Amino acid sequence: MEHKDYDFGLVGLGVMGRNFILNVADNDFKAFGYDLDQEKVDALKVEGGNLEKVNATSDIETFISALAQPRKVMLLVPAGKIVDAVIENLLPFLDKDDIIIDGGNSFFTDTDRRETYLQEKGIHFFGSGVSGGAKGARKGPSIMPGGNKKAYAHVKPIFEAVSAKFNGEPCVAYLGPKSAGNYVKMVHNGIEYGLMQLTSEIYDLLKKSCALTNDELHTVFDTWNKGRLQSFLVEITAEIFKQDDDLGNGRLVDKILDKAKQKGTGKWTSQNAMDLGIPVPSIDIAVSMREISALKDERVIADKLYDRPEPAKIDKEELISMAEEALYFAFINTYAQGLHQLADASNEYKYELDLSVIAKIWRAGCIIRAGLLEDISSAYVTDNKLKNLLLAPSFVPKVQKAVPSARTLVAYAAKSGIPVPGLSNSLTYFDAYTSSNLPLNLIQAQRDHFGSHTYERIDKEGIFHTEWGA
Prior knowledge:
Layout lengths: L7 E4 L3 H12 L4 E4 L3 H11 L5 E4 L2 H6 L6 E4 L5 H10 L8 E4 L5 H12 L4 E8 L1 H7 L2 E4 L3 H14 L2 E2 L2 E2 L9 H31 L3 H11 L7 H9 L24 H12 L4 H13 L2 H10 L10 H34 L5 H7 L10 H11 L13 H21 L4 H13 L6 H12 L19
Parallel strand pairs: 1-2, 1-4, 2-3, 4-5, 5-6
Antiparallel strand pairs: 6-7, 8-9
């Protein structure tokens, strides 16, 4: 093996890491992998097929010595203490101006801490979100890097080569300083939670209201994917309904337990939105619904304790048409909430985010990729100071036309005892955000009454307090 010859190093040869490093090698960059598991090392060597293009080792010193300087080392390991442990293991072998890239779903404040720590040692560090799952890593993910711009310049040619392409444009862009990349990926995942919850609710409505078969559900979602709802999630949903059970018991989707798990990024999005004071109710409820789903045993008991109304009869074609409009409406609202959070975080954390660029790099490769993102990107190109997508002139008629169906379906679901909290929260968010008057004047009066918290008036400047009941 020739030393100091490999362009790119990768730590962590699990499914994501192995696929990503093979993608790098496919794009004519020499890549070298490292993993403590010798089986994973050997598997990569065999799959790579050419050790001059892609190689691997379980010895950290051999790994580092194989890389051209400045060394570019990407970590694809689980977020948390493992990232810190890997960094400490790498440090004795690195030189000044070498670059470490965290490609995992690390919490953004951890990225800021690590960047400061490594800066003092002369090592560049930045976080980079990678979305698209295992297939995306192999064929082209959406990549969201942030951090030191000069350090990113060394990695830019590699990332642009391996990323997904939309009309020839790479789905990667430098997003901003510090933890901008990890933060954008976190909100991406929050939006993903929201869209998945909404999709599941529409499935539930179609199935319980009109008893659509899996074949019919496949046709509905497949048709929608050819229209304005074109997206990765709608596409794979259509595929899911066609998947037979290996055990020969009909379709697989009907045999899967209704307990959804989570890795925490949706929760982080929701928690941070609370810290910033930005409303993201479609994301909040998606997190809560995964938590409710985990209470399976309690749900089974409760189901027997309470009567549930029979869904009212509704025309199948009418329901499908309204469901498409309602899902489109709710998708727009979920993107609007996530992008609103990004805009506020950009100011709060000095990220200097360009939302039109973020929407562009989400158009291919990532889990939330959708045709809608082309329109979203255009809206932010037209007005880069846009406070909320719902205020974009190009979106007003789209939303205006779709909202009646959302209202009808939320009311229908409530009367029928079918939970649609994602759709309901999207509608409530829309109605609240587009209301010039909300009943919060009463809340301010209550706060002042019991706690002397003061209030403002609509007819006079200043801060006021009243001795209520005096």
